[in-house]
Amino acid sequence: MTTIQNRPAPLPAEPSKKGFAARVSLGRAFQPLSSEFLLIMSTALILTGFGLVMVLSATMATSTAEGLSPFEVVARQGVFAVIGIPMMLIASRLPVTFWKRIAWPALILGVLLQLLVFVPGLGIEMDGNRNWISIAGYQMQPSEFLKLALAVWMGFILFRKQTLLGLWRHVFIPVVPVAALAIGTVIGGRDLGTAMILVLIVLGCLFFSGVKLRLFLIPLIGAAAFVAFFAISSPNRMERIMSFLNPNCVQDYTGSCYQPLHGIWGLAGGGIFGLGLGNSREKYSWLPAAAHDYIFAIVGEELGLIGCLVVLALFTLFAVGAFRIIRKTDDMFIRIVAGGITVWIVGQALINIGVVLRVFPVLGVPLPFMSQGGTSLLAVLLASGILLSFARTLPSATPVTSRPARPGTVPARTAR
C-alpha cells in the first residue's frame, strides 16, 4: 500500500531585486510630505501670488498713463513666476549631495556674473548703484543669485571644517577672504543694501555652524564697522541716513524725505481695513518705486492693517517651517545652508518693511516674493526649492508600517 506524504505548501518566490527596488521607489514617490515641506511650499506660493496681485494694482495706473497695457508689468513678472515655480519644484527633488557638489561652481559663477556689471555696454547704473546687467533687452540683477550661491558655499565649507571650527584660523580661512571678495564685487557697484544682506548671510551661516561666541563677535564687529564706513563715505547715503534721523522730515519734503514720507502716508491712509484693492492714491506717481521697494506701503494703503498682518504672518510661517528643518536635521550642511537662506529671506523682508515704516533708512532692498523684479523672484523661489529638498530628508514623524497579512497566507520572507 502506497503511503501518501503530506508535503508543506511551497513558499512564495522571493521577489527579485529589480522588483523590490521598483516597489521601494514607488513608495518614496508617494510617501506623505512633511509638515515643514507643506508649510514652506504653501507660504512661498501664496506670497508669490499675493505679490503678483499687488504688482498689478501698483502698476496698472502708471502703465495706462504711458500708453501701455495695464497688464504690461505684471505679465513680465508672471513670466518669471511661471519659470520660478517649476524651478522650485525641480530643486526640491534634488538630493543634498547635489547641493554640496555645486557649492564652489555656484559661487564662482555668481561672482563672475556680478563682475559683468562693470563691463561697458552690459552694466546698468540706477540711482547711483551699478548692480544690473542688460542682456538681449532683459535686465538682471546678478547679486540676487550671489546671495544663494554664498549661502550654499558657506554651508559646504563650514560642513567640511566642522571638527576644526574651534580654531580661529579654520573659521576665518577661506570664509573671510572669499566672502569679502564676493561682497566686494557688490560694494564696487555701490549697492549698500545688497551688501548688508550678504553680510547677514555670512553671519547667519557662522551662527548656525555653532562657532564659539568670541569667534563670531569678531566678524560681527568688523562687518558693522565696514558698513558704517561705507555709509559715511557716500554723501548720498549720509543724506538718506540724516533724513531718517530727522524728526521734522516734512521740512525736507522735496528732498530726501519725499519717498519715506509718502510711504508712511500710504500706510496711514489705509487704516485698519484699507481703501480697497486697486484704490491706492500713492501709486499715481506720488510714491517712487511703488511696485519695487515700497510695495508694502501699497499693501497697507489698499488692504490696511489687516493686509499688512497677513504678509507678516506668511513670512512668520515661512520662518517657522525653515527653523523646524534646522532643529530636526542631523546634517550640519543642511543646518547651515537653511539658516543662511532663512536669515536672507526673512531678514530682508524685515529690513524692507522697516524701511517703509521709517525704522531704517532707505536701503533699496526688495520685499522677497512680492516686489517687482524677476531676478529676485527667481532667486527666492530657487532658495525655497533648496529648503524643500532639505525638508525631504527629515525623519518621518509617523513611521510607515507594513500592511497586515491576509488570513490564511504565508508571510513573505524579507528581501536581502
Task: Give a brief rundown of this model.
With 416 residues, the chain is mainly α. The chain has 15 helices and three strands.
Can you describe what's shown?
With 416 residues, this protein is mainly α. The protein has helices at 17-29, 35-65, 72-92, 96-101, 103-115, 142-160, 168-172, 175-187, 192-209, 213-232, 235-245, 258-270, 295-328, 332-356, 374-391, and strands spanning 123-126, 129-135, 138-140. The protein has one domain (34-391). It has a three-stranded antiparallel β-sheet, with no helix packed on it. The two termini are 45 Å apart. The relative contact order is 0.16.
Order of helices and strands: HHHHHEEEHHHHHHHHHH
Low-confidence stretches: 15-27, 397-402, 411-416
Class based on secondary structure composition and strand pairing? mainly alpha
Number of helices: 15
> Which strand order does the major sheet show?
1-2-3
Coarse morphology: globular
Percent in strands: under 5%
Q: Give the C-alpha Rg.
A: 26 Å
How is this fold's topology laid out?
Layout lengths: L16 H13 L5 H31 L6 H21 L3 H6 L1 H13 L7 E4 L2 E7 L2 E3 L1 H19 L7 H5 L2 H13 L4 H18 L3 H20 L2 H11 L12 H13 L24 H34 L3 H25 L17 H18 L25
Helix pairs in contact: 2-3, 2-13, 2-15, 3-15, 5-6, 5-8, 6-8, 6-9, 6-14, 6-15, 8-9, 9-10, 9-14, 12-13, 13-14, 14-15
List keywords for this structure.
416 residues; mainly alpha; three-stranded antiparallel sheet; 15 helices
